[in-house]
Amino acid sequence: MTGAGAAITVRRRVAWNETDAAGHNHFSAAFRWLEEAEHLLFRCLGVEPALIDRIPRVHIEVDYADRLYFSDVIDVSVSVARVGTSSCSFDFEVRKADGSRAITGSYVIVHASSTSSGSAAWPTAVSEALSRPQEFTRDHSA
User: Fold this and answer.
1) Which CDD domains match (predicted)?
2) In a structure prediction context, what are the per-residue pLDDT tens digits for the chain, which is 142 residues long?
3) pTM to 2 decimals?
4) Partners of 75 in the beta sheet?
5) Which range marks the domain in which residue 99 is found?
């Protein structure tokens, strides 16, 4: 998955609590997976953890193409598609071990100056780090 800026792929397994009564991934698991990958990307970029509470998601789109089951190894990829003055658009996908796509989507976050005010311009260092094409990988599948 290639985007305009920074990207990360995290290999992990589908956890039991991420499945539903039908035995496959619950729809909401994708949101947790992308958020985990995004937060890890921010850590890889050296962004202060205190920033996380000031970047709410304001839009998300998800398409589900295939089911995932307990203990399946998956690759969760998140990549920066566009960095705006105060927003950042991401693309994401979840691939099965055989490389086939199970979930795809996109979402937008907005930087706020505090937890109670409107949007604010990204700090220059964060904007530059998000915009710089660089890829990270992490394996959490053990």
Assistant:
1) 4HBT
2) 557 899 999 999 999 999 998 889 999 999 999 999 999 999 999 998 888 888 999 999 999 999 999 999 999 999 999 999 999 999 999 999 999 999 999 999 999 977 667 899 999 999 999 999 999 999 999 8
3) 0.92
4) 11, 95
5) 7-139
